[in-house]
Design a protein that fits this description.
Helix content: under 10%
Order of helices and strands: EEEEE
Strand order of the largest sheet: 4-3-2-1-5
Strand content: 35-45%
Number of strands: 5
Structural class: mainly beta
Number of helices: 0
Oligomer: single chain
Distance between the termini: 41 Å
Length: 73
């Protein structure tokens, strides 16, 4: 079996709450960020909706969207 790409719709008569969709994270050049694996860094480049380039001091990494492990400080 394969999973469909489309999310399941929420029925208005359902006793469960509708799932919350969070807005996508946005970063700008110069933002200070922290990443769960790489630590503290600074954004050096942004590819709108695709990826963000972050300098973590010893290395520069391209972090792909949706940035689940990265937060802005």
């Amino acid at each position: 079996m394969t999973k469909s790409a489309a999310p399941k719709r929420h029925l208005p008569t359902s006793p469960f709450k509708a799932p919350v969709t969070l807005p996508p994270k946005e970063f700008a050049v110069g933002d200070q960020v922290t990443h769960d694996m790489y630590g503290l860094g600074r954004v050096t480049g942004v590819e709108e909706g695709i990826a963000t380039v972050v300098n973590f001091g010893s290395e520069e990494r391209r972090i792909l969207s949706p940035y689940s492990k990265m937060t802005k400080l």
